[in-house]
Design brief:
This protein is an alpha+beta fold. Helix content is about 35%, strand content about 20%.
Length: about 110
């Protein structure tokens, strides 16, 4: 399947690295990806909200820049993500935001 091969080859500092993709049935795949130890953006925002805190404008701009560069890279490579949301943005301990869940991505024809 072309999408699976594209996921394996999608190499960008703000896209979660796919280590392996194993076929698990005709239309199912198990995706093994790099570990991002700080969880996802959705949970991070919920924790901030519990403490009555918000992301700063600088933090929001940083997230938009990092994820925007990942989306641009995918589009240049002829791919579209199709499921961009805060739960699909993972965070590393170094404060790097990475676009994840490429399972819904498609190759543009």
């Amino acid at each position: 399947m072309k999408e699976v091969e594209n996921m394996r080859n999608c190499n960008h500092p703000h896209i979660v690295k796919i280590i392996d993709v194993e076929e698990n049935g005709k239309y199912r795949f198990d995706i093994i990806q790099e570990y991002c130890d700080q969880g996802n953006l959705e949970d991070y925002i919920e924790k901030l909200d519990e403490r009555d805190e918000r992301l700063t404008e600088a933090q929001v701009a940083n997230i938009i820049f990092q994820i925007g560069s990942a989306i641009l890279h995918m589009h240049i490579e002829g791919m579209i993500h199709r499921d961009i949301k805060d739960a699909n943005i993972l965070i590393t301990s170094g404060g790097i935001y990475k676009l994840a869940d490429l399972g819904q991505s498609r190759t543009l024809a």
